[in-house]
Fold this sequence. Notes:
The protein has 189 residues and is of the alpha+beta class. It has 2 helices and 11 strands. A 5-stranded antiparallel sheet has the order 1-2-3-4-5, with no helix packed on it. It is elongated and about 95 Å long. Helix content is 30%, strand content 34%.
Amino acid sequence: MNIGIVTSFLIGGLLLLAMLHLNNQVTQHSTEITIESIEKGHANTLRRIISQDFNRIGFGNGNKISAFVPPYHINFKANVYGQGTKEIKWQFKPNVQVKSTTNPNDRVLQRVQAGSGSKPMNFHVVDFRIIGYQDNRGKIVTTDKSQIKSLRVRVVYESPEPIPMGTGKETYHKTVWKKLFVPNNLQLN
């Protein structure tokens, strides 16, 4: 057998393996970027809706918080979309697992707006917490709905599908968002 042909096959085989490995890494990285982009879109939509609702607590007819069960539940009235005052309820259900994703940590966060034809909006999140404060700086915690001047919302969101890692281990990309809301209408007493 010719040593030159054997050497050529070995070098060609090594180059082919290197190209396959590079292709696999590029595909994996592309998958991670796509999943992360989709996840950021979902998380941004949820953040916009929460911000829209919580900044308008009490807007319209002087309505304020009607129920507050920390850390998972709040009801309030607000004129969120300029179409009249509506009752809005945010409720996290830590015991209800989401069936539409493969993430075993996903739970149901539900937003319900009272009114004709309104359907509940369900989101998949890992955790959702609301803390009420007696001051507008978020320092003095309260559970009394009539004393609340500000609210801190914390949302933990993970990708609905696992991201395959190079080690063969699948992980869920996590995003944590928290914000202190100081609705103007809660400052008036």
